[in-house]
Structures are given as structure tokens and as C-alpha cells.
Amino acid sequence: MIKHKILMIFGSLLLLLLFIFPLWNITLEAPQYPTPLGMDIYIGKFADMHPHDIKNINLMNHYVGMKYIPETIPEFKIFPPVIIVMVILGVLIGLKANYKWYLRWLVLMTLLGIAGMYDFYLWEHNYGHNLDPKAIMKFTNPDGSVMGFQPPLFGSKDILNFRAHSYPRFGAYAMFIGMFLTFIAYLVGKKNQKVNYK
Amino acid sequence: MKNIIKSTLLLVATSLFFIGCGNNGGKEQKKGGALENNVAEKVYVAPGEHDSHYAFISGGYSGNLTVYGLPSGRMFKEIPVFSQFPTSGYGYSEETKPMLNTSHGFIPWGDSHHPDISQTNGEIDGRFIFINENNTPRIAKIDLRTFETTEIIEVPNSAGNHSSSFVTENTEYVVAGTRFSVPVPQRDMPIKEYKGNFQGALSFISVEPEHGHMDIKFQILMPGFNYDLSHPGRGASHGWFFFSTYNTEEASTLLEVNASQNDKDFIAAVNWKKIEEYVNNGGGTMMPAEYAHNVYDEVTHTATSTMKKEVRVVNPSEVPGAVYLLPTPKSPHGCDVDPTGEYIIGNGKLSANLTVHSFTKMLDAIENKKFAGDAYGIPILNFEDVLAGSVEQPGLGPLHTEFDDKGNAYTTFFISSEVVKWKLGTWEVLDRKPTYYSVGHLTIPGGNSRKPQGKYMFAMNKITKDRYLPTGPELEHSAQLYDISGDKMELLLDFPTHGEPHYAAAMEADLIKKRSRKIYKLEENNHPYAAKSDADVKVVRKGNEVHIYMTTIRSHFSPDNIEGIKVGDKVYFHITNLEQDFDVPHGFAVIGQNTSELLIMPGQTKTSVWEPTKVGVWPFYCTDFCSALHQEMQGYIRVSPKDSPIKLSWSLDGE
Ligand SMILES: [Cu+2]
Fold it and tell me: Could you give the CA distance from residue A59 to residue A73 in angstroms, rounded to a whole number?
């Protein structure tokens, strides 16, 4: 088989690693937690970084009126089939289609990724701002507005006594590498085409 | 004639005492030496850093075991073992009351003496620690994952359970030797008929390898001596156990004099493998006996006490080759075996010299049947035939010996208040250092194993005097830490201990640290009254008993208001701590309770009984500062008159 086809197929198959490894991680550091609290976000679930971390995050967050992190969110039902479809599509394109389709697949995947991130941001925003009006502790920003407790979408940020970190994990890296490989496949395919013309 | 002996002995004793005091004078000449040598740095453990060693120091008359760090001397924990402990509710909560059950009923106190850590292949493995109770003979096992007492077995036919609880090199057995001989079985008889009628039981308690469950495999019924201390053989002498004896005179009155008459007492050498074989082949007889076996189950968080009805006893004269007596001067107290297993040190507390027996010579003498006679059918060997050597005039009042990893021994001297370092084989004294004051046992981490870790040694003293700020007539005892890594011992630190620091076991921290548990898993909690979520919360009446299935989490109780309780009810608060985070216990106490509060660890269930005597609305609250809203962690229980029609009701989640 031709090199670019292998790259395209391998690149899209890398997305399957999202079903094994976490996509994202949010970690909360504070002096009284020598082992920081953390939550791994998978394609279909939230998981403790260390046993009982989510329970302990919930217990802590309830002081400021945050809701308990839900067992499941609708996205967990949508993301896995979308990824499966993209993998199948990627493999089929690799096997059958012209290299131009590689780029179309990549653009679609990128759009889906951006949509996913935006959706995650909305969920985080709601989780960090939709506070219980009977919250035990209420904090306001310097401008008088109610303080939100939204963790950063990407990067690190101080929230009261905690420092929150939000970064991609291996699943996301595997996805990025996969997408990068499909891009390479596109370039290689394009180059091959030119060579063939000559 | 008797009077002459008496007065001579008294004279000797007094002169010993005065020599002891004389030696003490001028021992502190080198005050300030510590700073010159940067000794402070050697014991300084910076904030947030961990000590390199654990030390488990028995509490003597406190009945407990205290945990210290070395080299800092900081106390980390007191583990309740044989005494009720209001700090955690041990012995007060319904789950732990059975731990203190005995054939004499519930006994809320005991005096703990010799902790010893479990071993594998002669090396300390950090799984369990065993400790004896002297007064009401018992042996306890503490699980070093949770630092909780998880098993206690009573020892029948025994009294003054002192030569205990040392373990063999694969933790096959924990021994429990009786200090006081008693009538076996116990009966009403004249005390003056002691001689020939009283017996000393040496109990071999088997330890099941996986969970450490204890069971008395057999008891050897020995002559009516006092069995003072013991040590297992190791290496070549693995399979043997050695017990020091005094009162071989079998006196029953004024023992100070009458048990100090014989020039030599004995170290009893017991070939337990031989007796084990005899027992496995059906040897020995089952004798009626009553003793409690108490086991704490970590899954139900509950102890159960079972009363056992019989015990297997062995008459040593019926197992030829199993027991021999090694003459040892004079009223030996300590009985210590060096890491190679060759030397058996008998510290005659009234003797001027230290006596060291050779295991090889002992086997040789047995082989050649060189016996000096027998005592109740047990062969006595010749002193000269088994003697490896003696340390001449090392000090006054030798008690206990421990060993380093370089072939040296360290012996404590009670009367001259010092530790003396000497060399095994050459028997020469290498160094001596004062202790403040009246030292009993000493410990080297890894002691009683084939691999002592010869960096630190600490001595445990009976008298504290001027070492710390005075606290009235009663002072805590003290321990002293020495660096023994060099040629000379160096005093590093002096720290107070709780209760009587009788003996200690110590080891490198890593083995225990990495196995230590942080929480109890809620999903593994099988307590019959556990409420694992607020859905399980309920209040149930059974006649005049009321069972409250309650949960705690930062910062509330569920339920928090309870009504329908009546005067004369027996109210059981079964409280489950729903936390699953390290070091977040919750407490519980209710007004007018005549037990203690409870301290409930994450994932654990504990039960407290309350018998209200007065009508009213009574508060209960969390006793452990658990969170920012700890002060709000409270509830009320309404108590109505006996004939009140008020039905049981309770509030949940503010509803
Ligand atoms: Cu609390």
C-alpha cells in the first residue's frame, strides 16, 4: 500500500486511543491537599485522578454552592459515536479515496474538535457560575459581581485558596498526533500526485 | 544463720546502690558537648520532613503502645491496646468493647510490656506488632497498616505474662511465658505448698501466615520457677527458644531474699520444633481452660469475643530432648540472643559478670549427655560446658542486651545507670555511657532480628528527675537516643515518653510507611448497622432499644433532629463517616453519656450507647474539628416521658 494511505489510516486509528486514555485533566492544588485533587475527563466519563477525588472536590465545592459533578453529561453519549464515525470514515478514505479527501476529513475533525471545546467551555461555565443561592460562603469580584469558580479551559488559574490547572492528557495528544499524521498524509499524497504527473 | 545471710545480702545490696550513685556523680561534666559536636543537627527533622525510623514504645502501666519517630523523638500516636482510650472511644464503643473481654469479664486496663515486630526469614517485615499484657495474661496483635489493635488472646494457666511476646524468625509463634508460677489448673490450696505444686506455663501461640490469626498451639508446663524474659533462637538456633528464670528456689514468701539464695538459676532452652512435632503427632493432652479470643474484623468494623474451653498442654519430661536447663548466675533477668543465634546472654541481675552461653557448646554437651542432674525430669547442663565467656565487672545491675550489625553488644545497667558496649567473642568492654536515670530496656532498630540496623540505640529510663521542667511529683519517664554508628556511643537526644517505656521495637520507616492505610473503603464496610448513604438513614425501635443509623460528612449529621425517644430507652447511635479523604474523621458525643465520645475514621462505622435519664431536648455534636463549619455540626434528640405517645421521627437534609 502507498505510504500516504498508511499514514491516513494510522492517523485516524490513533483516535481510538481516546477510548483508553483521558482527554483532559483538571487538577486543584492547595496547601491542605499535599496530594492535589484531580479529575480526568475521558471521552465518555469523568474519573478520579486518585481514589475519591471527585467526591472530595464536590465536598469542598459545596461550601461556595457549586453543584456536584454529575455522573454523566449528554456529551458522553454524543462524543464516542462521533469519534467512531470519524475513525471509520478516516479508514475508508484511506483505503478508497483520493488524497483531497484527507484534507476534508481533517477540516471536519478540526471543526468537531472546536465544537467540542466550546461545548466543554459552556459546561464548565455553567458548573462554575450556576451556584446554589443558599451557598454557605459567598464571594464577590472587586466589581461587585458574584464570583465564579470556573476552572480555566486551558492553563492555570488561582481560584480562592486553590490553584487550578487544566491541560490535555494523553488521549488528546494521541488525537492531535493522529490529525497531524492525516495532514502529513495529505501532503505526501499531494506530492505523489505531482510525481505521477511527471 | 538465715539472719546472717539476710544481713549480708542487705549490705551487698546497699553498697551496690551507693556505688551506683557514686558513679552517677560527675557524669554530666561534659554539658554543652552536644552543641560543640552539632548533635542538634543529627536529630533535627525539618518541618514537613519525615523521620527515618519508627519506634514503638510500650506504655507499661498505661496499657498502650506509643509511636515515636527517630531521630526526632516526636510522639506520633498512642495506640490503645489493653486499656480503654477515650480519645478514640476504644473499649467504649460497642464494636471495640469485646476486645477487652477476658475469662474474668471486661477488663479495661492492662500493663503492656514487650512489643515485637513480625519477621520473615529472620528480618523484620513490618506487618504486625505483638505486645503482651502482664497482669491479666494476654497477647495482642496490632496491624501496622492501620495501627489498630486487631486481635487479643488471653493466656490461660499463666500469671504475670512477662517473658512475652517475642516472635520466631518466620513469625511461626509468639511466645507467652509466665512470670509467676501458679497452680495448674487453678484451685484453692495452701500457698506454702507452692514448691513442687505450682507450675509455669510457656505458651506457644501460632500465627497464621496470611492474616496473622493467633491460636494457642501448646503450653509447656514447666517447674514452678519464675520465667522472666525470653528470646527466640535464630540462624542455626532457629527452632529453639530461651527463657531466663529466677526463683528456682521455688520460694513463695519474701522473694527478695528467698529467691536470691541459689548461686545460679537457669536459662531454659526449649526446642519448640521438637515439641511442635510431638504435638502434630497427637502428643500432649487437652486440658479444660477458659480464655477469651477477641478478633476485630476490619470489614464489619466490629470485634467479637469467643470464649475458648480447652488448651493443649505438654509435660516437658515426656518429650526427651526438648527442654534443657542452662545454669546462669544469678537471678538472670534479660535473656538475649545475638543476631547470629550463637550467643545467649543471661544478665544475672545480682551477678558481677555477664554470662554468655554458646549454642554450639550447648548442642555439644547435649550430644555427649554431659548432664549435671535434672529438675523435675528436665536435664541440667554443666555451667562450664555451655559457657562461651563472660564480660568481667562491666557495671552494676545488668538487665538487657541488644546488638548492632558489627558484632557488638550493648547492655543496660540499672544500678549504675549506664549502657555498656562490649564485643562479642572477646568479651572486652569498648565504651560506656551514662543514662539519666535507672535504665531498663534498650532498643536498636531491627533488634530481635538477624539484621539489626546499627545506627541508633535508645535507652528507656525509669526515673526522670531533673531532665525536663518539673511537673509536680509525677514526671513522665524518659528515653535517650544514642548514635552508635561510630566507635563510641554518642548521646543525641533525650525525650519524654508516655506511661512506662518498658521496651520498644523499632524499624526503618519505609516498610511501614508505604503500606499504611489512609481510609477505610466505604464499599467494603460491612457493618450490620452501616448507613452508606443518606438513603440508608433511619431510626428503628425494638422494644426499648432505639437504633439510629446515622451518617456524617463535612459538616452535618443525618439525621440531625430526632424525636420519639423516651426515658428508659437504650439508644444506639450507629454512625458511619461517609468521608473518603485521608485524615478527615468526625466525632460524636451526646450530653450526659456515661461512655466516651467516638472518633470515626473515614469509611468506618462506630456505635455509641446513650441511656437518657431525663426528659428534654438534648444536643449532640461533632467532637473533632473537621471543617470550616465544624461548629455547625450538631443535632438535637428529644426525650419524652416513658408513657409519651410521640412517634419516632427524624429530619434529613433540612427537610
Ligand atoms: Cu465533624
Answer: 20
Residue B551 parent element (H or E): strand B545-553
Q: Is a pLDDT exceeding 50 seen at residue B483?
A: yes
C-alpha B610 chain-centroid distance:
32
Q: How high is the pLDDT of residue A192?
A: 84
B623: left (phi over 0), alpha (psi -120 to 50) or beta: alpha
Give the residue among B446, B442, B486, B488 at the shortest CA–CA distance from B461: B442
What is the phi-psi region of residue B464: left when phi exceeds 0, alpha when psi lies from -120 to 50, beta otherwise? alpha
Q: What ipTM does this complex have? A: 0.85
Cell (9 digits) for B470:
518539673
Cβ contact (<8 Å) for B580 and A55? yes
Q: Quick one: cell of A158?
A: 488561582
- C-alpha angle B590-B591-B596 in degrees, rounded to nearest 5: 60
Render chain A in DSSP notation, one character per residue.
--HHHHHHHHHHHGGGGGGTS-SEEEEEEETTEEEEEEEEE-SS-EEESSTTHHHHHHHHHGGGTPPPPPS--THHHHHHHHHHHHHHHHHHHHHHS-THHHHHHHHHHHHHHHHHHHHHHHHHHHHHH---TT-SS--B-TTSSBPP-PPPSSEEEEETTEEEEEEE-HHHHHHHHHHHHHHHHHHHHHHHHHHHH-
C-alpha B621 to ligand 1 mean position (Å) = 8
* Interatomic CA distance for residues B505 and A174, integer angstroms: 52
Mapping DSSP to helix (H, G, I), strand (E, B) and coil, where does residue B272 land?
Answer: helix
What pLDDT is stored for residue A1 in this prediction? 55
CA of A57 to the centre of ligand 1 (A): 17
**Mean predicted confidence (pLDDT) in B412-423:** 95
Which secondary-structure segment (H or E) carries B386? helix B383-386
Residues of chain A positioned with their CB less than 8 A from the CB of B579 = 59
State how far the Cα of B266 lies from the Cα of B324, in Å rounded to an integer.
Answer: 9
- Burial class (CB within 10 angstroms; exposed 0-12, middle 13-18, buried 19+) of A48: middle
DSSP class of residue B566 equals E
Average pLDDT over residues B337-351: 91
Q: What end-to-end distance do the CA atoms of chain A give, in Å?
A: 21
Q: pLDDT digit string (tens) for B7-66?
A: 444 444 444 444 444 344 344 444 555 455 689 999 999 999 999 999 999 999 999 999
Distance CA B552, CA B533 (A): 9
Closest alpha carbon to B100 in B119, B78, B121, B85: B85
Residues in B touching A56 (Cβ below 8 Å)? 580-581
Could you read off the pLDDT of B108-150 as tens digits, one per residue?
999 999 999 999 999 999 999 999 999 999 999 999 999 999 9
d(CA A120, CA A51): 24
Helix residue spans in B162-237 (DSSP H): none
Q: Which of A33, A52, A61, A68 to mutate to test the interface with B (most CBs of B within 10 A)?
A: A52
- What pLDDT digit, counting tens, does each position of B436-481 carry? 999 999 999 998 999 999 999 999 999 999 999 999 999 999 999 9
CA of B494 to the centre of ligand 1 (A): 37
Lookup result for grid cell 438513614:
B537
A contact test, residue of B513, B556, B580, B633 with most A CBs within 10 A:
B580
pLDDT of residue B524: 97
Q: For chain B, which domains are there?
A: 53-511 (2.130.10.10), 524-651 (2.60.40.420)
Name residue B411's beta-bridge partners: B401, B420
Phi, psi (5° rounding) for residue B116? -145, 135
Residue with cell 544469678: B330
Query: Cell numbers at residue B415, please?
Result: 544500678
Nearest CA-CA partner of B158 in B85, B235, B103: B103
Q: Which residues make beta-bridge pairs with A98?
A: none
